[in-house]
Design brief:
Elements lengths: L1 H10 L14 H17 L3 H9 L4 H15 L7 H8 L8
Helix pairs in contact: 2-3, 2-4, 4-5
């Protein structure tokens, strides 16, 4: 079961674009949107892409801030790609 969870975490959509971010969060999430696009272009492998995102300088603070904003302002709580990425990186959530 643990292996299945780990494999599913790697397969989670790591691409965060402006469509995933409410207007109120665009400025807060801009660096994460840019980072995920860069890592997506750089790597074809999901595990490498996730490592690129999670290990990027400042990701451990910027991603939780973005996720907190999205959680506060997003009306579609069932499809929070930012939260999925936060969990895939094993980062701690914060409040906005």
């Amino acid at each position: 079961i643990l292996l299945a969870f780990a494999l599913s975490a790697v397969g989670i959509a790591q691409d965060i674009d402006n469509n995933d971010v409410p207007n109120e969060c665009r400025a807060v999430c801009a660096s994460i949107v840019s980072l995920t696009a860069q890592c997506d272009q750089q790597f074809n492998d999901d595990a490498q892409e996730l490592n690129c995102i999670c290990s990027a300088s400042g990701a451990n603070t910027q991603l939780p801030l973005c996720e907190a904003c999205v959680s506060q302002f997003d009306s579609d709580n069932s499809d929070n790609d930012v939260n999925d990425l936060l969990r895939s990186c094993s980062f701690t959530s914060t409040s906005y």
